[in-house]
Amino acid sequence: MSKNDSISMSVIRRLPRYYRFLTELDEQGVDRISSNKLAEIMNVTASQVRQDLNCFGGFGQQGYGYSVGQLKDEIKGILGLNNGYKAILIGVGNFGSALANHLSFEKLGFELVACFDNDKRKVGQTVGEMVIRHDDELEDYCSGNQVDTAILCIPKENVEAILDKLYSLGIRSFWNFSHYDISTRYSDTVVENVHLSDRLMTLCYRMNHN
Amino acid sequence: MSKNDSISMSVIRRLPRYYRFLTELDEQGVDRISSNKLAEIMNVTASQVRQDLNCFGGFGQQGYGYSVGQLKDEIKGILGLNNGYKAILIGVGNFGSALANHLSFEKLGFELVACFDNDKRKVGQTVGEMVIRHDDELEDYCSGNQVDTAILCIPKENVEAILDKLYSLGIRSFWNFSHYDISTRYSDTVVENVHLSDRLMTLCYRMNHN
After folding, report:
1. Any idea what DSSP says for residue B170?
2. CB B204 to CB A4 under 8 A?
3. For the segment A57-83, what is each residue's pLDDT rounded down to a tens digit?
4. Is B141 exposed, middle or buried (0-12, 13-18, 19+ CB in 10 A)?
5. At how many degrees (to 10) do helices B9-27 and B35-42 cross?
6. Pick from B95, B148, B183: which is nearest to A98 by CB?
7. Which among A201, A98, A133, A15 is positioned nearest to B22, based on CA atoms?
8. Which residue in chain A is spatially nearest to B5 when comparing CA positions?
9. ipTM for this prediction
């Protein structure tokens, strides 16, 4: 896995899809799969499948294809889903609580360990199986507990103050649902942005030009 | 705008960001902006800004830069945000209701006109300002009303049956939060997929290899 440094984001973004499809095949009891068949499921070319997986060292055998369970486990390891990263949620509004209630964090490499809101009326209520804490408790919590990632479900105008605090507490990884540009302020962070409104505007563009 | 056919998805995906930043600048009363300054805000190069906007015909003037209000309006038109597309929501669970309550659909080119769920207990309740209808009413509703887009917030295993119905009712545009691959089944559709769990796994990968 020494080749990882130079792997393009488009290959990386396909890995979760491989993992999802292989998990399904594994659950269906499928033992092995050809690159042609895997390509068909993934809706890419067989050569693309081989190229993608070669980035991580191959795994296939000429004339046999891929062992489904083994390839699934390899990709799980490459994704780091066994690392048990600890995540906190900042902002328990509609979206925040939807994420907390809806996503299977543990299957996706994370444990959601705490959630915070600046609204005193929410503090003490529960979401998922967590009690909502006030933002003021962030420092205390992060000092006493491992926190690897913060999930930001707060409006853009509230991000900067809380981001500065999280950064000073050593957090360098963010799943960002706000429109605030984290990596411009802190370039040594890992940020996945989900900009729902941008995606809806892109759909609008594509309908407009279809 | 005759060049639109060949514009790459990466340029298209930057358009909503241009639109957001220009809207903010316009609200702040900024009249004009250089490509250097716009590049700085966008966190891309000035040459990238010029290239991007040249795809749609330019709009800048040597030595003047861009008129903020005019460029914003041009991009709004290119995105089709004035087209008034009508959207329906399928699945009023956590995520569906978060979308309905949280997103400013009308600013993003759409009007959310109706929502549907297969859970009879939800039918008749309201979300946003809409009364939740049963999936059985889809055909009636779509026959009597303009519907351009369906937003799918339902589990993968429930998608196929409802997709077939929506397709037969003439709907060709989907904002898809499920893991079902719509464009493989119907290639003549416009689909924006939002796969939250894939994004979280990608973050996990990037932390694992950082």
Report:
1. T
2. no
3. 767 677 778 999 999 999 999 999 999
4. middle
5. 100
6. B95
7. A201
8. A209
9. 0.94
The dihedrals phi and psi of A89, each to the nearest 5 degrees, come to: -105, 130
Q: Do B83 and A208 touch (CB under 8 A)?
A: yes
| CB A146 within 8 Å of CB A122 | no
User: For residue A44, what is the nearest residue in chain B, using CA coordinates?
Assistant: B184
Instruction: Name residues of chain A where pLDDT drops below 50.
Output: 1-3
Q: Which residues of B touch A19 (CB under 8 A)?
A: 201
Give Cβ neighbours of residue A47 (< 8 Å, ≥ 6 apart): none
Burial class, A82, CB count within 10 angstroms (exposed 0-12 / middle 13-18 / buried 19+): exposed
Instruction: Walk me through the domains of chain A, giving residue ranges and CATH numbers.
Output: 2-78 (1.10.10.10), 85-199 (3.40.50.720)
Chain B contact probe: residue of A203, A206, A209, A210 with most B CBs at under 10 A? A203
The nearest alpha carbon in chain A to B182 belongs to A43
**Beta carbons of B95 and A97 less than 8 Å apart:** no
Q: How far apart, in whole angstroms, are the C-alpha atoms of residue A113 and residue B110?
A: 36
